[in-house]
Amino acid sequence: MPIHARYISFYLILFISVLLSGAYANTDTKPILVICSYNPAAHQTSVTISDFMDEFSKSGGKCNIEIENMNCKCFSESPRWKGMMQQILSKYTGDKQPGLIILLGQEAWAAYLSQEDSVVSKAPVMCSLTSRNAVILPGDTVSLEKWMPEPVDLFSGELGKKKVNSGFVYEYDIPDNIRMIKCFYPDTKHIAFISDNTYGGVAMQALVREEMKKFPELDLILLDGRSNTIYTIMDKFHHLPEHTVVLLGTWRVDMNEGYFMRNATYMMMEANPAVPAFTTSSVGLGYWTIGGVMPAYRLLGRDMAREAVRLLNNPDDGNGQVEVIDSKAVLDYGKMKELKLNVKSLPFDVEVVNQPQTFYQQYMYQIWASIAVLVILVGGLIVSLFFYFRTKRLKDELLKSEIDLREAKDRAEESNRLKSAFLANMSHEIRTPLNAIVGFSDVLVAGGSDEEEKQSYFEIIKSNSDLLLRLINDILDLSRLEADRISLALESCDVVQLCRQVLSSVSVSRKSTNEFVFDSKYETFTLKADIQRLQQVIINLLSNAVKFTADGTITLEFSVDKEQKTAMFAVSDTGCGIPKEKQKLVFERFEKLNEYAQGTGLGLAICKLTVEKWGGRIWVDPEYTGGARFIFSMPII
């Protein structure tokens, strides 16, 4: 991209930031300070800022975004960067203290790391578009052309209080690059490393010098842009010794601060095309270098925005979350085929790039045109079949609709019959206790009765009130069960003891002349159940047995089917019994085998819905002939 175009792109981003700052001007939150290295050649900077602003707004960010540019160009001016950073930080103190500082680019990153601890801002710091490897900027007295700094790792603890709370840093894997070179060129004796007159070039050269100590059998040749122009570099290319492999780091600026970009690498390639070249940073890939182990570069603006929102929402979070973007091994397809390189010989996985188009990619439009014609022909056939089957389906639906209408008519008639039966039952069952309550209440109000008569009237009123209340409760209980609005409250209980208590309670409350018997081989058995609902089912079955048995025996049985993991309950009586053809009907709502017996026909329906609610079933024993025998089950949990 031409230099003036990159300046235009930068000022466009600056203009957007001013607009966004105005949009957030009414908020009381602290601003975000973005300190940008801004190298005119680094178009990625402007893209990153643009993506950051867009995603920050979408994520609900409400802070002003202040952008400061250091306008760094080359390493020759690096002694001034420390002061420039200090001057920027001094503008944002006191009331202007930022809520977050973002260091964008290698130069801003290095200038911040070179500050004294007393100058460093207390605000959390995020870094991006930089590497975990750094060098501390030199003083004014250092000769920059010959300065050989030691690399500093972000995570080494050597950076004092200049803690980075978050960020995204690249990791350059020099040893794996050397292993790739030695795998493809085992006779290699010299590594010619190319770096330019930028901070990134100096930092990467420091890392290479440190890592090459692990390979003492290899000689390191430094082609340094701080002390060379593109022309002297080309001359040195001509005189490289045999068995030399080029490892390309960065190249944008030479010692004369001239920007050459891709033209420079083309010139190097043409100066000595026989020398194999690899890259640590994707420079030269696709036209010169064979490949290399390099960071998995990606756009970071949106990730930075989401991380900024997290930091601003959690200002007390002291856990740094610096993401290290790992490296990946990459090979150029054309070079790999030209040099007949064996990828399988590498000790790690590799990604092949710049592969030629497949047959589908080359003839995509022709393929899709043929498919379109075929689709039209098939579509015509499908349309014809569609109308044929549609006509047949409509005919079938008409026949089915006729059947459904008949079934709906039958259901409506049945529903009407059930409604009439319900109203008849309710009117009879409600009117009977109400008449008794009203009648005997009038007698009590009229007076003239002795205490014994009053007591009998009270008992009649109470028994009829209980009957009316039980009737209403049954109706409400049935409606809740049918609407599935009842949930079971499971708890551990001794069902043997519970059965004895229920049996004793029914025998007393019903004032029956029947004999009540409990039969079980268990003295105690613990089961998880809804105690209230289990009691309700047993009481309903016992009460039903009392209603149809006179001077007989009513037996409650409890047993366990261990194979099926099921508890079994049975209530049997010696009463009138139930005809076999009506045994399934007794569980239907409002069904009464004896229309003159007291009750609404709801008790057994409630029992059936309750037992099915806990996953069991209830039925009438068809083999029992001594009266009626009801059995229900409950799963053992």
Automatic annotation (TrEMBL):
PROSITE patterns: HIS_KIN (PS50109). It holds the Pfam family HisKA. Residues 425-637 form the Histidine kinase domain. Its EC number is 2.7.13.3. Residues 391-418 form a coiled coil. It catalyses: ATP + protein L-histidine = ADP + protein N-phospho-L-histidine. It comes from the Bacteria. CDD domains: HisKA. The chain crosses the membrane at residues 367-389. One of its GO terms (molecular function) is ATP binding. The keyword Transmembrane helix applies. It is an enzyme of class 2 (transferase). The keyword Transmembrane helix applies. It is found in: Membrane. GO terms for cellular component: membrane. Keywords: ATP-binding, Coiled coil, Kinase, Membrane, Nucleotide-binding, Phosphoprotein, Transferase, Transmembrane, Transmembrane helix, Two-component regulatory system. This is histidine kinase. It comes from Jilunia laotingensis.
